[in-house]
Design brief:
Blueprint lengths: L1 H4 L7 E5 L2 E4 H16 L9 E5 L4 H12 L3 E4 L6 H11 L3 E4 L4 H11 L2 E4 L18 E7 L7 E6 H15 L6 E3 L7 H13 L3 E3 L6 H9 L5 E4 L1 H12 L3 H11 L4 E4 L6 H11 L4 E6 L3 E5 L12 E2 L4 E3 L3 E7 L6 E2 L3 H7 E2 L2 E11 L2 E7 L4 E4 L2 E4 H8 L5 E11 L3 E10 L10 H8 L11 E4 L13 H7 L8
Helix pairs in contact: 2-3, 4-5, 6-7, 8-9, 8-10, 9-11
Bound molecules: methylmalonyl-coenzyme A and adenosine monophosphate (AMP).
């Protein structure tokens, strides 16, 4: 398991961030030191939930390992999320401790006060021998929050065993080795950036760079540097890299294209990869993106293989994964990678399984060249920029807006974002038209909802289409939004 293998390759570089490189040995001792601080003075933290509000790189990675050394369950937070969303996660998970980077101390203090948490700051001077007692494979390791069709986001609980199964499956399928070097430009409160990139690199002794977020020019320069072997991202990131390439001078384009062509593997996932993006990326870099399909609850389920990559298809089951699918219909998944339960939601957990198979809610089809995904069963789940958001949660928020009498949120196709959040609004009789401008609404929503949930397109209507039962007909709402090339 990850913790047991950390004392291998100790002299190798584990990560690179704005402070420079850090060896596996320093990470091992630093995280063990922080783990001790989490338990001081002699508190048994096993099974407690510890929120993580840390900068990507050494601070985040040390923090999650420290939580695991202490036997607790990690609850990663996104430092840029508005306070109401952080409050929901910390409160729902019933965290007892928050570990934070010094730069996020103020926000962490605010959360600690509201939720009565102990606050521990990361500290580069902490060092310790790793403890002999390790968590058991069946112990809960991680809670990641995900949007659904009911209520607020819910916590997906992974055990050390399910995380281990996910990592070893990816190592086998995509032939990760200690020689690999990757860069994480994705957020760390999702499985993609956290497990697929950061933890899997650590698990096999590879190196992971953390620039702290996505910047297209920086990523191109790193891809072109010759320092990297593996790159993983969501389709929106590839689309934005293509735009940056098109905006660049010709000598820079040549350097970027040649450098990027030398990586051994580039993977796309978290949302459908448009064939046009795959083709353009191949023209620019010579790389054929390997598309795979996954989900917070199950890790990686289907993937094209290193040898066989079929545009518009998501391949075959990953090592260890079993799927159930009749020709065309809802995809069901089973295997050791699958999550244990939704945190404190037993009825939603049992509803999500059928005879031990997890119901993904995705509609798939068996095709001669691997599987194809046809979309989601629920129209109320939107994927924008690789982020899953609930239309219902956005509607609930905007119903509080003084100019909104009623609203209906749908996802509409968008070249850059995959889907853009679009909202039809029936205004109140005295609504100020200026308050209904998209930028105004986004600004109003910013303190309540995270960035992906803010509407990109708005349409003021005189009535919402409803069926005989009075229910809003979302397909008709979506049709009212004219196609647009780009949501910005
Ligand atoms: C940012 N904005 C967005 C999104 N992100 N709008 C719609 N959808 C989004 N996802 C807004 C910003 O608030 C800003 O608005 C404007 O877009 C441009 O912001 P910018 O700074 O350029 O964007 P960014 O912050 O760089 O973010 C773009 C991103 C990011 C890098 C594509 O959204 C991202 O990291 N997405 C990946 C999420 C992810 O990891 N998903 C995996 C979950 P304004 O100008 O008004 O301020 S799925 C998963 O884990 C499963 C297991 C799987 O299969 O992988
Ligand atoms: P999340 O719940 O945020 O982990 O997102 C998982 C969802 O993203 C899946 O249920 C799919 O709907 C979608 N998804 C992930 N990978 C792909 C892919 N390659 N193609 C289409 N949809 C995908």
């Amino acid at each position: 398991m990850l913790l047991d293998g950390l004392d291998t390759f100790t002299d190798r570089v584990a990560l690179l961030d704005s402070e420079g490189t850090m060896s596996r040995l320093s990470l091992l001792e630093g995280s063990a030191g922080l783990g001790e601080a989490l338990c001081a003075p002699n508190v048994d933290r096993r099974g407690e939930r510890i929120a993580i509000l840390c900068r990507p790189g050494r601070e985040f990675t040390s923090a999650i390992l420290a939580v695991w050394w202490s036997g607790a369950i990690a609850v990663p937070l996104h430092p840029e999320h508005p306070v109401p969303e952080l409050d929901h996660v910390v409160g729902d998970a019933r965290c007892s401790v928050i570990v934070a980077s010094p730069v996020h101390a103020e926000l962490a203090r605010q959360l600690a006060t509201t939720h009565d948490l102990r606050l521990v700051l990361t500290d580069p001077t902490l060092r310790s021998e790793p403890p002999r007692r390790r968590p058991e494979a069946e112990d809960d390791a991680l809670i990641v929050y995900t949007s659904g069709t009911t209520g607020r986001p819910k916590g997906v609980v992974h055990t050390h065993r399910s995380l281990e199964a996910q990592m070893t499956s990816m190592i086998e399928a995509w032939q990760w080795t200690a020689e690999d070097r990757t860069i994480c430009v994705l957020p760390l409160h999702h499985v993609h950036g956290l497990v697929n990139v950061t933890l899997t690199a650590l698990r096999c002794g590879a190196m992971c760079e953390s620039p702290g977020g996505f910047d297209a020019v920086h990523v191109w320069n790193r891809l072109a540097s010759g320092d990297l072997t593996v790159f993983m991202a969501v389709p929106t990131i590839y689309a934005r890299l293509i735009t940056a390439w098109e905006d660049a001078e010709s000598d820079i384009r040549t350097r970027w294209s040649e450098g990027a062509g030398r990586l051994r593997l580039m993977v796309s996932g978290s949302a459908a990869l448009p064939v046009s993006v795959l083709e353009r990326w191949r023209e620019l870099t010579g790389q054929v993106l390997l598309e795979r399909y996954g989900m917070t609850e199950v890790g990686m389920a289907l993937s094209n293989t290193l040898e066989r990559r079929v545009p518009g298809h998501v391949g075959w089951p990953m090592p260890g994964v079993e799927i159930r699918l009749d020709e065309e219909g809802e995809l069901l998944v089973r295997g050791p990678q699958v999550f244990d339960r939704y945190w404190r939601r037993p009825s939603e957990t049992s509803a999500a399984f059928e005879d031990g198979w997890f119901r993904t809610g995705d509609v798939a089809k068996i095709a001669p060249n691997g599987h194809r995904l046809l979309g989601r069963a629920s129209i109320d789940i939107i994927k924008t920029g690789g982020e899953k958001v609930s239309a219902l949660e956005i509607e609930e928020c905007f119903r509080e807006h003084p100019a909104v009498a009623e609203c209906a949120v749908v996802g509409v196709p968008d070249r850059t974002w995959g889907e853009a959040v679009a909202m039809a609004i029936l205004p109140t009789s005295d609504a100020d038209p200026a308050a209904l401008e998209v930028d105004e609404l986004r600004d109003w929503g910013r303190s309540r909802l995270s960035a992906p949930k803010l509407p990109r397109r708005v349409l003021v209507v005189e009535a919402l289409p409803r069926n005989a039962l009075g229910k809003v007909v979302k397909t008709e709402v979506a049709e009212r939004f004219q196609p647009s090339g780009d949501g910005g």
